[in-house]
Amino acid sequence: MAHNHEEILCKVRHELPTDELLCDLADLFKVFGDTTRMKILYSLFESEMCVCAIAELLGMTQSAISHQLKVLKNANLVANRREGKTIYYFLADEHVRTIVAQGFEHLIEKHHDNRIGVIEK
Amino acid sequence: MAHNHEEILCKVRHELPTDELLCDLADLFKVFGDTTRMKILYSLFESEMCVCAIAELLGMTQSAISHQLKVLKNANLVANRREGKTIYYFLADEHVRTIVAQGFEHLIEKHHDNRIGVIEK
DNA sequence: CCAATATATGCACCACCGTTCATATGTATT
DNA sequence: AATACATATGAACGGTGGTGCATATATTGG
Question: What pTM was computed for the model?
């Protein structure tokens, strides 16, 4: 903290959301930040699915999928309905699609930038 | 894998992106999934800032901030420019704002749902 | 009510990640 | 060239989180 930046600090400080909100935001994105959960979400883009179907699709334990579905549900990204013994999971709302789509766009854009060779520094 | 779901598995399997893409997507969101990095991004929403300013703003070590800035830069979320001894970081593009904004909307919507009491199950 | 199926959960292991400390690199000033 | 300032980096420590195993819960059929 040698050179001074009082002006900027004051300005930014007042615009920053509360720690709680920032933490909640990070926690939300943390849910998207796992390959297994991302695969589950993408699967549900197509249609609702039961737990064992997802497990078979991803070649993983039913337990692992169940654990991750719980995380997704806690974040309000998926919901479920029961039909006899089986429980079907589906996307909770359209935010999931938009958020993932935005991430996707960022990826391909940056990937394209790297291919055509953006001048760095 | 007791009851059968051949139809759904075949259908979804063909629509799923490659493992590499899904992994890249998860890795991207992983970057958003940390409170410190989220604070840094939100700070840069207002204006570009140098490393020590961010460190002072967040009350954290210069080293910690530097490490996180590297993560953000590797994900192409921020970029920097040098001006003498100090290095200013800024948002790399507008995707950052849109992605965070979408997450924000999801949060407040779900929070509102909980307040008015959505009938669950 | 017991067996079978579908899912959920608690626990433990392991890997990964964020922080700090110490130090290195880079830049300007004198 | 030497010093001071701004930032970067490497190693290590501690905590968190994803997975599998074993087991519990729930629903249906006989």
Answer: 0.92
Q: Which residue of B has its CA nearest to A54?
A: B9
C-beta separation of A71 from B81 below 8 A: no
A33, B27 in Cβ contact below 8 A?
Answer: yes
Query: CA quadruple B80, B81, B87, B93: dihedral positive or negative?
Result: negative
B49 shares contact with chain A (CB less than 8 Å) = yes
Q: A47 to chain B: which residues are within 8 Å by CB?
A: 8, 11-12
Query: Is the pLDDT assigned to residue B33 strictly greater than 70?
Result: yes
Alpha-carbon distance of A64 to A43, in angstroms, equals: 16
Nearest CA in chain A to B121: A81
Secondary structure element (H or E) that encloses residue B11, with its range: helix B6-15
- The helix (run of H) or strand (run of E) holding residue B66 is helix B62-74
Query: Which residue in B57, B69, B66 sits closest to A8, CA to CA?
Result: B57
Residue with tokens 């929403």: B45
Which tens digits make up the pLDDT trace of A19-52? 999 999 999 999 999 999 999 999 999 999 999 9
Residues of A in contact with B38 (CB under 8 A): 22, 25-26, 29
Establish whether the CB of A12 is closer than 7 Å to any nucleic acid atom in strand D: no
CB contact under 8 A, B5 and A100: no
